[in-house]
Recover the amino acids of this structure.
């Protein structure tokens, strides 16, 4: 019991703890999230558009990953499917889902806007324009296993956010309003460029459409190796700065009074959220709803504090997208963006109902 | 319209390249002549599905030329995207990702080697029964790998997603990408696929027969006194889709004896109604007939009623698939198109398309 608190009255943290149902405690939620992640990994490896007996899947993993001396009784194609297609695909889904959820939670906090998502400041239209330009002018350029389109999508996303940030500083509106409106304006301009590219693309339109819907079907180990460091480092830095996010959510003035370098922290948070988003979008296309809905789901359960929110968003975002991708490939490769929206939209409606009962960002 | 790869609008070419040149025909025919002699026993009946193509063709008799003999495996060939593809051994599990190459492999008698195709491969009927390892959305990579192919034929110009091609190659599967924007390129692709499948002599014989048949059809069509302006309707709904300038379909119309009305832009397949009215086609060929468009629909369209073709009733359907699919039935397609453009054209029996190729307008 701290000094300054009247005897007999528990400290705030004690009271919060006492009034929070046991199942809402972050540690328990985290345990559930990790269990969900493990389940998603197992089912993601076990199921797909081709059926492989579970015993074969287990034996392949034991044989190739753990080096156990198991007699090879399965066709070589099963090994390729499990190790070269499903495993990198599940890992890519987890990286992208976790990254997008953390980026979304960060954007919502920094912009103090529950409708914000990882794409709100132009990353989506920037990446889509980059990818579509690569479709219009395909060059045999690649880097680290990424194709020309993926490189341009990454560059497009990063450049779009940088442009929005730079332009918003000239705005005389309040910094947040200016940022959001600039993001909207730049996004609209880039989207017009995307529409033009789609008109000009002729027979190649299909490629652009599938980028816009998002897919994990082309995930490879090389792409995982490129995206993993960017996303993991970005997420760790964001989670490390949870205190800044909490302070920013109180308002710029209050945050400044708390001793926070508001402008600097905001740039750092936005920059790493944009970096994580760009890495996810470049490798998987535009996957919607993960970054919007998962943070809200976590807030509903554990409350708005960023310190538990960000890591939990990472875990649940990863599990959510891995499951969504599994559902997408079972009927034979649906774009995963459709599945995330089909699952995500009803959740979001549920959240909107909860808003009336006192839900806060 | 048919899902065969559209001609690449970005590839510049000389127009009228296919107006029949005897020299070209002779060169190809001679290639086939010697090729025919070296056809392996297993391929002595090379055409099952499209027997009419070869059976109807007079045996070419010309001077000797370099023999089209099948190079031995391992074989490295350069595909239409310039990629050197090494095929380690005679393929016996082939996945075909374009309807045209599926047709060809069946026509060469290699249908039994196919272990997968796409869900838009509809000819011959046996192609529909194969496992479909790709859809409009792309290759279903798990299914493709499970088919254990030792050769994949893919379509260029985005027909097979470039990312899927890269992915398959990264898994060690030999992928030959074919793409033809011209009629000679179609024939070259048929030989390339034949070579990749270890069937170059049979494929060469097939293409030589196609070439001589197409030359004969084109010569008869060109000998007609008039060459009406032709709008080949790819689709209307609500934009009007027709052949891009210098595109494959436009070339087919030239070969078939017409003067093509194109969009005027090599990159665009849509034409404004105003432009179509100004161009005033004398004949409208309904490439979209198989997809539900009827002559009555065309007549009822506002703004079309004064077109010469509509006034004269010169609106005729054609089997779009054989006209636009760059496969072994292309000579049938040319004959069908020539008859759609000019129904009074008299073709010898050996040049006639199968009856289904010229639908009777309803």
């Amino acid at each position: 019991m701290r000094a300054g608190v009247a005897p007999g009255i528990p400290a705030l943290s004690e009271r919060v703890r006492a009034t929070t149902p046991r199942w809402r405690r972050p540690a328990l939620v985290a345990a559930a999230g990790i269990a969900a992640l493990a389940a998603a990994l197992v089912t993601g490896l076990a199921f797909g558009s081709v059926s492989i007996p579970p015993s074969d899947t287990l034996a392949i993993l034991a044989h190739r990953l753990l080096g156990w001396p198991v007699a090879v009784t399965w066709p070589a194609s099963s090994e390729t499917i499990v190790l070269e297609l499903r495993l990198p695909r599940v890992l890519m889904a987890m990286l992208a889902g976790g990254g997008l959820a953390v980026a979304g939670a960060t954007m919502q906090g920094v912009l103090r806007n529950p409708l914000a998502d990882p794409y709100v400041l132009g990353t989506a239209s920037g990446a889509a324009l980059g990818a579509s330009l690569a479709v219009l002018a395909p060059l045999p350029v690649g880097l680290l296993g990424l194709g020309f389109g993926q490189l341009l999508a990454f560059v497009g996303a990063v450049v779009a956010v940088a442009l929005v940030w730079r332009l918003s500083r000239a705005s005389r509106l309040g910094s947040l309003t200016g940022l959001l409106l600039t993001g909207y304006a730049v996004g609209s301009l880039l989207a017009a460029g995307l529409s033009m590219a789609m008109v000009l693309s002729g027979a190649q339109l299909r490629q652009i459409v599938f980028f816009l819907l998002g897919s994990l079907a082309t995930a490879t180990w090389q792409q995982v190796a490129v995206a993993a460091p960017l996303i993991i480092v970005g997420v760790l830095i964001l989670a490390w700065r949870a205190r800044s996010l909490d302070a920013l959510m109180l308002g710029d003035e209050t945050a400044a009074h708390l001793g926070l370098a508001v402008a600097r922290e905001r740039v750092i948070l936005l920059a790493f959220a944009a970096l994580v988003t760009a890495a996810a979008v470049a490798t998987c296309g535009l996957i919607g709803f993960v970054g919007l809905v998962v943070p809200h789901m976590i807030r509903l359960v554990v409350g708005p504090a960023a310190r538990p929110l960000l890591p939990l968003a990472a875990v649940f975002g990863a599990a959510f997208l891995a499951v969504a991708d599994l559902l997408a490939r079972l009927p034979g490769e649906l774009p995963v963006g459709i599945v995330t929206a089909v699952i995500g939209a009803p959740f979001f409606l549920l959240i909107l109902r909860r808003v009336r009962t006192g839900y806060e960002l | 319209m048919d899902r065969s790869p559209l001609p690449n609008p970005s590839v510049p070419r000389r127009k009228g390249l296919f107006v029949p040149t005897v020299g070209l025909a002779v060169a190809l025919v001679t290639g086939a002549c010697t090729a025919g002699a070296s056809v392996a026993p297993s391929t002595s009946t090379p055409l099952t599905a499209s027997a009419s193509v070869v059976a109807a063709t007079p045996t070419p008799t010309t001077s000797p030329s370099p023999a089209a003999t099948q190079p031995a495996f391992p074989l490295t060939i350069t595909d239409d995207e310039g990629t050197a593809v090494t095929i380690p051994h005679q393929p016996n599990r082939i996945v075909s990702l374009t309807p045209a190459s599926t047709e060809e492999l069946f026509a060469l008698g290699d249908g039994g080697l196919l272990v997968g195709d796409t869900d838009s491969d509809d000819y011959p009927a046996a192609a529909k029964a194969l496992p479909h390892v790709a859809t409009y959305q792309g290759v279903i990579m798990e299914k493709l790998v499970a088919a254990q192919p030792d050769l994949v034929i893919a379509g260029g110009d985005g027909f097979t997603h470039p990312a899927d091609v890269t992915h398959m190659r990264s898994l060690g599967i030999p992928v030959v990408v074919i793409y033809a924007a011209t009629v000679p390129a179609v024939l070259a692709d048929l030989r390339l696929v034949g070579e990749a499948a270890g069937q170059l002599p049979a494929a060469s014989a097939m293409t030589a027969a196609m070439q001589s048949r197409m030359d004969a059809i084109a010569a008869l069509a060109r000998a007609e006194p008039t060459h009406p302006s032709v709008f080949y309707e790819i689709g209307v709904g609500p934009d009007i889709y027709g052949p891009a300038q210098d595109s494959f379909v436009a070339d087919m119309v030239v070969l078939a004896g017409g003067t093509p009305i194109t969009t005027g832009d090599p990159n665009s397949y849509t034409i404004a109604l105003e432009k179509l009215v100004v161009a005033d086609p004398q004949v409208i060929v309904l490439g979209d007939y198989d997809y539900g468009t009827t002559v009555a629909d065309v007549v009822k369209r506002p703004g079309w009623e004064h077109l010469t073709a509509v006034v004269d009733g010169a609106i005729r359907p054609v089997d779009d698939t054989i006209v636009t699919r760059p496969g072994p039935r292309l000579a049938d397609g040319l004959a069908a198109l020539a008859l759609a453009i000019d129904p009074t054209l008299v073709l010898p029996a050996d040049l006639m398309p199968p009856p289904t190729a010229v639908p009777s307008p309803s």
About this structure: Residues 1-66 of chain B have pLDDT under 50 and may be disordered. The two ends of chain B are 19 Å apart (CA to CA). Chain B touches chain A at residues 5-6, 9, 135-138, 140-143, 145-148, 157-159, 161-164, 166-167, 170-171, 267-269 (CB under 8 Å). DSSP finds 14 helices and 15 strands in chain B.
